[in-house]
Design brief:
The structure holds two protein chains of two kinds. By secondary structure, chain A is mainly β. Chain A has no helices and eleven strands. In chain A, the strands form two sheets. In chain A, strands 2, 4, 5, 6, 9, 10 and 11 form a seven-stranded mixed sheet that branches. Chain A has a four-stranded antiparallel sheet with strand order 1-3-8-7, with no helix packed on it. Chain B is an all-beta fold. The N and C termini of chain B lie far apart (41 Å). Classes of the chains: A mainly beta, B mainly beta. At the A-B interface, strand 5 and strand 10 of A face strand 5 of B.
């Protein structure tokens, strides 16, 4: 039982390049989330998927797209990376979308855009 | 919209001393409140949560938090700090999504 896994762990991009961050969970959770973490700002929600087949914007969606590939997998795509997207990205999942329960986090992807 | 304020970006205590990490929230409705911990280079994990019922909530690793509606606070405490408690701690409140505080880094002095 690996929980929430993320790939890659580290990535360096040049401005304008694209990439996809992968996330998978093996807990049969319905809801999945993408956050970014910046120093002194806590976590900010980029996109979430309340259930398979649905995705919604969070607080900071500009410059990102997501795909809920199936119940297990939720990917985040940067189409044209910008230095402002340098951050640590966390994927999380929860059993339900009502936010009363625990969110389980992956280990994060540290992204640098030069 | 709700907001969460964590007082102090860094808190330093001696090993064996009381740990107190402060969290205040803005809410006009009964809140759901959470404390998460992040160890270096890891993801976040749930310490404890308040949903309804008893206002003193016990979590993992000896931590507890008290929900005080009149003060709109949900401070995290531990009677005796251990070196392994060194981490960053985040308070969060449920709104249409989770609203996160900026985090408090706990430093333990030997």
């Amino acid at each position: 039982n690996a929980g929430v896994t993320q790939t890659p762990k580290f990535q360096v991009l040049k401005t304008g390049q694209s990439m996809t961050l992968q996330c998978a969970q093996d807990m049969n959770h319905n809801s999945m989330y993408w956050y970014r973490q910046d120093p002194g700002m806590g976590l900010r929600l980029i996109y979430y998927s309340a259930s398979e087949g649905t995705t919604d914007k969070g607080e900071v969606p500009n410059g990102y797209n997501v795909s809920r590939l199936n119940k297990r997998e939720f990917s985040l795509r940067l189409e044209s990376a910008a230095p402002s997207q340098t951050s640590v990205y966390f994927c999380a999942s929860s059993e339900l979308a009502d936010l009363r329960g625990e969110q389980y986090f992956g280990p994060g992807t540290r992204l640098t855009v030069t | 919209a709700q907001s969460v304020t964590q007082l102090g970006s860094h808190v330093s205590v001696s090993e064996g001393a009381l740990v107190l990490l402060r969290c205040n929230y803005s809410s006009s409705v009964p809140p759901y409140l959470f404390w998460y911990v992040q160890y270096p280079n890891q993801g976040l994990q749930l310490l404890l949560k308040y949903t309804t019922g008893a206002t003193l909530v016990k979590g993992i690793n000896g931590f507890e938090a008290e929900f005080k509606k009149s003060e709109t606070s949900f401070h995290l405490t531990k009677p005796s700090a251990h070196m392994s408690d060194a981490a960053e701690y985040f308070c969060a409140v449920k709104d249409y999504q989770l609203i996160w505080g900026a985090g408090t880094k706990l430093i333990i002095k030997p």
